[in-house]
C-alpha cells in the first residue's frame, strides 16, 4: 500500500476528504454528509467522516491526517470523543480549526490572518500555521457581525420597518417578501405578521438565506447593510492582524460585501482561500513528508 497524506474538511452539511502523495498529486477524493458533531450528532458525524476518508484513501495507508473543523473543541467532550474512537484509531488525525485549514488553502505563508464569513464570522491570527489569537466567532445569538446570518437578519428587519411605515416598499423589502413567498400588494399588515411568524418558526440560522439579497439588489438600504457588514468584518481582521497576508474565506466574501472588505483592507496583502481540503491535505503533507512538501493543486 502506498503512503499518502489525508486532509479532511468538515462542514455542517458536507465532509470532503483529499488524499495526496509525496509529490503533491491528488490520488483520491471522498465526499459524504455532514461530519460536524455540533450540528449532526457525534455518531452520525463520525460515520460520515469515516465514509469520506475511506473513499479518498481507497486502500492506501494514511501516513498523516489533518482534519479541519469549526468548533473542534467539541471533541474534548468525552461523550463526543467516544463516538470518534474508530476514526482516531484508523486515521490518527491532528484536528485543527477551520481557520487554520482556510489559511493554509490560501497562502504558503506560515504567518498572517484569516477572516471567515459564511453563515457565521470570525477572524484569527495565524503563527506557525496555527491559530494563536481570535476575534469574534461568538455565534448568531451573541455576535457573528457581518456574517450571512447577520446580513439576512438585517434585511428582514428593514423589511419589517418598511411595512410598518406604510410607505411604498423599496427593492430590498420587495425582494425579501418575494423570497419568503409572501404577498406584496394589499394590506401591509398581512405580510408583516406572516414574515414575523415565518422567521420565528424556523431555526434562527435560517435567516442567512436572505443575505444574498443585500448584495444583489440595487437599493440604498441594501447598500447600507453591505457597508456595515464590510466595516465590521474588516475591523475583525485588523483587530488581530500583525502582518503577513490576510486570507478571506467563506461565501460572503464572494459577494459585494467581500469586494468592499477588500477595499477597506487596502495596503494589506489580501488573498482568497481556496478549497478547504487543499489546506487540510497540505498541512497533512507537511506532517508526513516534511517542510518542503508541495501544496496540492486541483
UniProtKB/TrEMBL annotation:
ATPase BadF/BadG/BcrA/BcrD type domain ranges (all copies): 6-256
Leader peptide range in chain numbering: none
Domain of life from the UniProt record: Bacteria
Cross-referenced Pfam families: BcrAD_BadFG (PF01869)
UniProt cross-references to InterPro entries, sorted A to Z: ATPase_BadF, ATPase_NBD, Euk-type_GlcNAc_Kinase
Protein known as: BadF-type ATPase
Amino acid at each position: 500500500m502506498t503512503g499518502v497524506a489525508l486532509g479532511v474538511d468538515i462542514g455542517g452539511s458536507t465532509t470532503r476528504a483529499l488524499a495526496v502523495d509525496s509529490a503533491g498529486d491528488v490520488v483520491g477524493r471522498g465526499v459524504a454528509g455532514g461530519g460536524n458533531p455540533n450540528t449532526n450528532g457525534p455518531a452520525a458525524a463520525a460515520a460520515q467522516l469515516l465514509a469520506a476518508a475511506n473513499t479518498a484513501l481507497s486502500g492506501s495507508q494514511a501516513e498523516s491526517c489533518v482534519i479541519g473543523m469549526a468548533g473542534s473543541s467539541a471533541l474534548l467532550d468525552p461523550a463526543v470523543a467516544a463516538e470518534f474512537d474508530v476514526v482516531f484509531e484508523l486515521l490518527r488525525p491532528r484536528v485543527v480549526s477551520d481557520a487554520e485549514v482556510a489559511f493554509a488553502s490560501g497562502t504558503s505563508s506560515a504567518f498572517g490572518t484569516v477572516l471567515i464569513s459564511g453563515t457565521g464570522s470570525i477572524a484569527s491570527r495565524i503563527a506557525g500555521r496555527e491559530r494563536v489569537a481570535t476575534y469574534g466567532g461568538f455565534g448568531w445569538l451573541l455576535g457573528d457581525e457581518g456574517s450571512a446570518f447577520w446580513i439576512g437578519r438585517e434585511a428582514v428587519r428593514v423589511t419589517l420597518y418598511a411595512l410598518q411605515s406604510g410607505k411604498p416598499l423599496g427593492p430590498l423589502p420587495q425582494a425579501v417578501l418575494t423570497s419568503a413567498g409572501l404577498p406584496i400588494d394589499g394590506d401591509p399588515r398581512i405580510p408583516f405578521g406572516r414574515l414575523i411568524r415565518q422567521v420565528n418558526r424556523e431555526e434562527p440560522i435560517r435567516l442567512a438565506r436572505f443575505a444574498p439579497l443585500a448584495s444583489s439588489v440595487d437599493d440604498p438600504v441594501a447598500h447600507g447593510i453591505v457597508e456595515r457588514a464590510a466595516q465590521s468584518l474588516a475591523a475583525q481582521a485588523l483587530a488581530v492582524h500583525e502582518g503577513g497576508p490576510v486570507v478571506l474565506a467563506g461565501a460572503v466574501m464572494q459577494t459585494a460585501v467581500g469586494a468592499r472588505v477588500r477595499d477597506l483592507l487596502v495596503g494589506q496583502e489580501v488573498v482568497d482561500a481556496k478549497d478547504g481540503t487543499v489546506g487540510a491535505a497540505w498541512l497533512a503533507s507537511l506532517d508526513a513528508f516534511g517542510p518542503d512538501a508541495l501544496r496540492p493543486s486541483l
